[in-house]
Amino acid sequence: MKRPRISFTTSTALALAGFTLLPMAQAVQAQQGPALEEVVVTGSHIRRKSQFDTPSPLSVVSRSDMMDQGASTVVDVIKNLPENSGAEFQVDNLNQPLTSGTSNINLRNLGLGSTLVMINGQRQTLSAVAATDGSSFVDTNSLVPFIALERIEVLKDGAAATYGSDAVAGVVNFLTRDDFEGLEIQAKYQSVDSGSHSDSELGVIWGGGNEATHLVLAASYFDRDPLQSNERKFTEGTALSGLGQPGTFLTSQGFQVDPACGVTGGFIRSNGFCGFDYSPYFDLSPEEQRWQVFGKVTHDFNETTTGKLEVSYSDTEVEVIASPSFPFATFFPTVPAHNPGNLWGEDVQFFGRVLGADAGPSLAVNEYETTRIAGSLDGSFSSGWYWTLNASYSEQEVFYDKGDVLEERAVAALEGRGGPNNNQYWNPLYDAKDDPAVIADMFGTTGLRGETSLYTVDAIVSGDLMEISSGTVQAAFGVHYRDEELSHDWSDDFNNRAFLNLFGGPDYSGSRDVYALFSEFNIPLSDTLEMQASARYEDYGSGLDSLDPKLALLWRPNDQWSVRGSVGTAFRAPSLFQTIATQATQANMYDPLTDSTVYRSVQTLGNPNLEPEEADVFNTGVTWEPSDGLEFSLDYWYFKYDDLIVKQIPDVVVAQEAADTLAGLSGTDAQRRVVRDPASNLITFVKTDFINASSAETDGLDMSWAYRFSPQDMGNFRFGGTWSWMNRYDLREGPNSKKVDAVGSRNKLNFARSMPEWQGNINLTWMQGSHSAAAYLRYTDSYVDDGNNTKIDSHSTLDLRYAYEFEELGSGSATVAVGAVNVTDEQPPTVVDLLGYDTKVHDPRGRMFYLNLSYTF
User: Is the CATH number 3.40.50.300 carried by domain 8-239+278-323+361-383+449-489+507-574+611-644+693-856?
Assistant: First the structure.
């Protein structure tokens, strides 16, 4: 679908006209009474009297909802949103090593980059690291202290017409406690029933001021003790490698295992290699510390003009363990006949790793520093129109360090030129008592220092445009500018591709400017029917631009019924990472030619010729409120997504290469992408690209209900639930590819992510006097692991919480809450893969108990 173009001259003229509105507004505004209590809600630039007076489906998680769930981090909340499917919210050493300590949102499973994340209505910078599949995302762990959150609004509708790129699947807006008064201190301790894992968090918030100025300050500290894979039985034997220590040697007589194999630290595999079980060397939940601070000041300059300034900072450090050392994967070195570990009297080839079980796990460090400053000015004209000027700057810096063996130094050590003085041997036989200095000399580090930044400016005017027979037409007009930057600086060893496993790649950096114009109209068609029409034009330069319209209707025939519907287009521009990066990752892949699962490096090159992703979006829904205590909502959603940007799946590339080879073909594209060791025919690494896949078409239903009732002398009850049903998710890898239905699949063999058909929860809360309690029953449907055609069972957990409030304790009030997560200690369903469970769906920690104390005065 070709995007309409607007001429540069017209765009520039409109932009300049928009930027003149602010000084005009300040010049002509006059003294007048306080403005009507109207607010800007997520999904619209027009002020409304009601937060829910909008034709787009909007769900809200309030602070009281978060407390009922026993949440103390953003992850505790967003991972349980039924519409959030396929996100990354916990560590996965092999499949997401660079992003440990981050979290993200994936509405409708349309991609980590297809949901726009905002703080108080303004964009936030992307994370300085991308997911292993190349997706860029906003790190929701680094936004603001959890104690500073007032609510989370989730707009479950395409919103490119309002907010531009990235708002394909919807918008998640994190809003802070700007009006908080007093002082509140919260402390929480949570621990698993079995194992060493625990979380400790301390948060404090203070708010105060006078009639003109209000200040809110908040800070928090989060500390996590790790849960390691050897503390859970379901991980046992799930990570088996044919490259270990003891290792395997290729001689003129064939493959020979280290004599110690089967005696200690290894076992003989069916392919004749000495295997290594590295299952015990991983984190299921890593060691983590996070500091966060937030401050916001609101000042009324006069009766018509208000200014706001907010500052936040987050510092996260994560230590992640893994196997003692990586296997040799990109190169299998020669052990010369004169090496003391050579038992065969001839040059042989070594297949294994430097360190084995006796060395214990290795360590990787991820550090993130995220800074944000945002300001706004709001005012009104004498005519009653409002004006707003917003500006923000946010950045994230990352440091990532992981060790790997240097090819040149390993070869030198095998030849007797190793160590700090270049005169020592490395003996590759097990338990060879090598000098530690020789081993240390063979290792280098990745030393990544990366940074992303985002600068934004918005100018918006809104108000009553005209009167028509059916009511008042409201409108909003605005201009937007943003500057995005990304840079990655790796160590020299990484740049020189000096490693035996991590492969490596160059440094890279880039930036771009984006300009946008947008408008929105709210038109009453009758006393019960209104229409919202909006459009946004964004220009990225170099011929990349987009015009996205949206039309929505809201019909309220009476106080009980509300019917809504919308249709529009959306787009997502290629991220800077996808256009300029050279991504080196590692992945497990099955090799049909050797009948083995191997862990190998994958190199993916950025593609500057990527087209933007485009989507047609449709939503319709109904809300029924037959009484003050009962509310039921049902929404149908549909997305047709074209030109999705994905990274080719290594398994698919390897499978095609094997099929071409078995068919007698030579020189095919797949064969060029799979590089093999000529002596052993083992894969050394795989080359993939970022590409525009053909399409994905998906639809489904969201359901929610809430029933409030108060039996005599029994307190106040609320019975509710939220559910999401995925009807279909039809995708194609390319124009001529076979259609794949991704619903109910783990999607290991395509670009989608784990996608259970049903997800949701049923909840019951109760309050009477100082007592309150809550119960959440959560359900995830069964689905199929397409990698091996096995079933992943459905999963249900029950969370319970009880709280008591001491209303008069000293000069304030205190609340004590106790609770349990996963009361019945349900283990994650079995997956035939590394760690034995699906890290994008299930929680490996089992039953957890917590104590939460808060004091307010």
Answer: no
